[in-house]
């Protein structure tokens, strides 16, 4: 399989702070938490480390370890950070022929502060990542690609999204997109217009909720009824949280099944909605699958888990795997990532994932609800 990852490259500075050294405030009525930093005070850190990251680099490394012949389309600066990224790509066997460089901006960088449950707060400077030009995503980049994976794009780079999707589709690739929240809120209309060209759209719960108003206003089709399928792991227990609670944003509410049907009504073949430790959902023409989150030995960092899940799922689906197997492999790879502080050390090879799936073929648990109409 020949794969192409398009999107961001970052240098991540990851700061781990002991829980006793930083206060956390949790809002009971809003299910969000805040780390409190006191002005003018030095805070002792357990570790401060620098790693290569960014959505497209994370995805490219994941796909390469899964056995795909992978290249990356990125834009970096002319600084030392760019050299570190290029070195990392070479180490992982990812082709850097399509990595463009610019002296108009610096290479993207982020500072992640993690404490308590290790769900990091991230300060980001996107830099050169925002400057993809049309020539950087020319049609020849897509020739012969079996899988094109598009990560979050912002600013000028987000303007390239329609052409990227169209060119990837014209090349006959399996086209997967994992957009960011700003892309969905600031550019909802052009994004929705290109859903028809996607083989897979992947969003997390927050991103899915951001799409609810646009889908509701358009009054796209509601979901057909869902029927639990006992042959696919349903034992009569209650549905997972997001299926019970649905999605809500800005006064608009939508059941998960309705949301999945609405997105698919635009022509998107498959939709993944991830919900952190509550697992993830995949909707296709047959119905909705849910995979439980795989157990992690110890959560050391959550950054990169979404990249691992979605790129693994996309790679296996593009390679012909059935949805249940793709979801299980994705959950296992994401669990490996959260066991490390950086976004790539925990990524598995295809052989390692296959061995784990063979040893426990029903783990993590997958449930399935079939469309009835």
UniProtKB/TrEMBL annotation:
Transmembrane segments: none annotated. GO terms for molecular function: kinase activity. The keyword Kinase applies. Residues 36-218, 264-349 form the Carbohydrate kinase PfkB domain. SUPFAM superfamilies: Ribokinase-like. GO terms for cellular component: cytosol. InterPro entries: PfkB_dom (IPR011611), Ribokinase-like (IPR029056). Keywords: Kinase, Transferase. It comes from the Bacteria. This is Carbohydrate kinase family protein. It comes from Marivibrio halodurans.
């Amino acid at each position: 399989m020949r794969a192409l990852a398009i999107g961001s490259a970052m240098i991540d500075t990851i700061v781990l702070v002991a829980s006793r050294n930083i206060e956390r405030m949790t809002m009971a009525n809003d299910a969000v938490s805040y780390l409190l930093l006191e002005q003018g005070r030095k805070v002792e850190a357990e570790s401060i480390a620098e790693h290569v990251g960014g959505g497209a680099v994370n995805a490219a490394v994941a796909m390469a370890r899964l056995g795909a012949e992978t290249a990356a389309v990125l834009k970096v600066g002319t600084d030392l950070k760019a050299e570190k990224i290029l070195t990392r790509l070479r180490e992982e066997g990812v082709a850097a022929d399509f990595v463009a460089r610019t002296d108009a901006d610096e290479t993207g960088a982020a500072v992640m502060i993690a404490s308590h449950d290790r769900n990091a707060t991230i300060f980001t400077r996107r830099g050169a990542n925002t400057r993809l030009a049309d020539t950087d995503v020319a049609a020849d980049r897509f020739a012969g690609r079996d899988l094109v994976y598009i990560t979050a794009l912002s600013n000028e780079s987000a303007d390239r999204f329609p052409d990227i999707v169209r060119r990837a589709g014209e090349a006959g690739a399996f086209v997967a997109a994992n957009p960011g929240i700003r892309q969905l809120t600031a550019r909802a209309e052009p994004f929705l217009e290109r859903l028809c060209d996607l083989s897979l759209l992947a969003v997390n719960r927050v991103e899915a909720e951001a799409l609810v108003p646009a889908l509701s206003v358009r009054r796209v089709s509601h979901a057909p009824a869902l029927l639990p399928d006992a042959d696919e792991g349903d034992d009569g227990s209650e549905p997972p949280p997001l299926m019970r609670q649905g999605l809500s944003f800005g006064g608009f509410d939508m059941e998960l099944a309705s949301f999945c049907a609405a997105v698919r009504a635009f022509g998107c073949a498959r939709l993944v909605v991830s919900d952190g430790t509550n697992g993830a959902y995949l909707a296709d023409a047959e119905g909705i699958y849910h995979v439980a989150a795989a157990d992690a030995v110890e959560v050391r960092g959550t950054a990169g888990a979404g990249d691992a899940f979605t790129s693994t799922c996309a790679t296996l689906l593009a390679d012909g795997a059935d949805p249940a197997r793709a979801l299980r492999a994705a959950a296992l790879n994401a669990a490996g990532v959260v066991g490390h502080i950086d976004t790539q050390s925990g990524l598995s090879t295809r052989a390692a994932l296959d061995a784990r799936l063979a040893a426990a073929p029903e783990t993590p648990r997958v449930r399935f609800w079939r469309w009835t109409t």
